[in-house]
Specification:
By secondary structure, the chain is an alpha/beta fold. It has one domain: Ribonuclease Z/Hydroxyacylglutathione hydrolase-like (Metallo-beta-lactamase, Chain A), CATH 3.60.15. It is built from five helices and 14 strands. The chain has a six-stranded mixed β-sheet, with helices on one face. A hairpin with a 2-residue loop joins strand 11 and strand 12. The radius of gyration is 16 Å and the shape is globular.
Length: 205
Amino acid sequence: MTVKHFPQLSDSGCNAYLIENGGVTVLIDAPDSAVKGVKESGQKLAAVILTHGHFDHISGLREIIKVSGAEVYIHEAEIPMLTDTAFNLADMYYESGSFPVYDGKVNGLKDGDVVNIAGLNFRIFHAPGHTPGLIAVQTDDMIFTGDFIFESSIGNTSFPNSNPQDMAASLKRFVNTFGDKDYTLYPGHGGKTTMFRELNRNPFL
């Protein structure tokens, strides 16, 4: 298994990660910066798992699904964000009607789901706070945290659909669930980090 990182290319972008196992790939988040890499990978894209529905994490989704036919997974609470440009905050950065919304087939997720794709088990951890349906995705010794936990920081809770109290509860439950192992954490912004590093240095944990 390998992980290829597609870094954010602008302030309005985010990280994406292409996980390859046995010639089949799974993409975590779908910014427009990931479109080229998916097209050039030469491997079958089986699924896109979205950590949440903010515009920067879904801006390339429509094009990626068009070229790959991959399945789309997102927490059930975030499904409306795929088409609602006020809800997903695209209206803050895009001219009216110009954001590439995705209105295709979606598989809704909930806390505790385990999805088997490409021979890997992806465990879903619901972490509301930044958005109502944000998820962290654990497979093997890796956790893809989206805009939940960053290196020495956490996701913004000042957006209209954010909730600081939910974030505090999510962080506590996350530490109780995963804090006994030094997972590699792959965030939606910034560089990767580890569970033990964040437990020692992140002031929010």
